[in-house]
Amino acid sequence: MDRPFVLSRGTKSRGLGLPMHAHAEAQLTFVVSGLVQVHTREGRWLVPPQLAVWVPENVLHQVDVLTDAELWLIHWQAQAARDWAPPTLPDRAFALRVTPLQRSLLAAAFAADIQPEKAKLVVRLMLHELTEAPDAPTFIPFPTSPIGRRVADIALQDRQNKLSVGAIASRAATSVRTLSRLFPAETGMTFKAWRQRTRVVQAMDQLGRGVPIAHVSAALGFASAAAFSSAFRQVTAMTPTAFAGRPDATAG
Q: Which of 119, 171, 208, 221 is most buried, judging by how many CB atoms fall within 10 Å of its CB?
């Protein structure tokens, strides 16, 4: 196994993507610019610029390109990923905030003049650094039961957050008590926290497409720009303006 990994980079146009599929290699995708979304059976991640997605071998996933995007990809042959990765590396897909070291490793790996032996060391270290990277707060876990799925679908369609928990439970033919029990058990989050996460991820989607912050706040039913900014910071640890890369950081 002389070179058990492949480095590739390219641009993807908005609207392109890949349907649900799996591949025999482990894959790390770094989003240099643009916005993509990754689905698995467990949920979906919104992946804005400067975040990355790890997908182990044989994990079914779908990729949607929401805006024109530049992507850097590393594929490891399955045996190399198993041999080189530390045992603490999760065997599930996840999106991650890129650590400063991982960012430097990516820059080194994709440098035009990198030597093969150095590239091999760099991509081996990348696998170890994945265990140090915090999960990005852009994952929406899906409930697994039919009732939970019905509740989630209704809540996701209620983009302006007008329905009460009782109304959602009634439409899903269940009770508030059952709903409150199911979500922590099936998603690891309370329904209130899950709903807030979905609203913020939807906001990230819109901000990534260039929609003005005030329009996003109103469309998602936040009482004010301040309330939107507070909720956004709770989930992402940054303001909407910082996420959107706007020059006026006081606006969000």
A: 208
| DSSP type of residue 136 | P
Are 110 and 9 spatial neighbours (Cβ–Cβ below 8 Å)?
Answer: yes
What is the C-alpha to C-alpha distance for residues 25 and 85, in angstroms, rounded to an integer? 13
**In 62-95, which positions are buried (b, 16+ CB within 10 angstroms) versus exposed (e)?**
ebbbbbebebbbbbbbeebbbebbeeebeeebbb
Asked if residues 231 and 220 have their Cβ atoms less than 8 Å apart, the reply is no
Under 8 Å between Cβ of 27 and 95: no
Domains and CATH numbers, the chain: 5-132 (2.60.120.280), 143-244 (1.10.10.60)
Distances (CA, A) of 3 to 26, 111, 113, 137, 206: 14, 17, 17, 34, 40
Query: Smallest Cα–Cα separation from 229: which of 209, 210, 247, 207?
Result: 207
Instruction: Please check whether residue 224 is in contact with residue 230, taking contact to mean a CB–CB distance below 8 angstroms.
Output: no
Please list the pLDDT of the chain residue by residue as tens digits (252 residues). 468 999 999 999 988 889 999 999 999 999 998 889 899 988 888 888 878 999 999 999 999 998 889 999 999 999 999 999 999 998 889 988 888 999 999 999 999 899 999 999 999 999 999 998 777 778 888 899 999 999 999 999 998 999 999 999 999 999 999 999 999 999 999 999 999 999 998 898 888 778 899 999 999 999 998 999 999 988 877 889 887 765 443 334
Helix, strand counts (H, E) of the chain:
10, 10
Rounded to whole angstroms, the Cα distance separating 227 from 209 reads 21
Kindly give, in sequence order, each residue whose CB lies less than 8 Å from that of residue 174, ignoring residues fewer than 6 positions away: 147, 150, 151
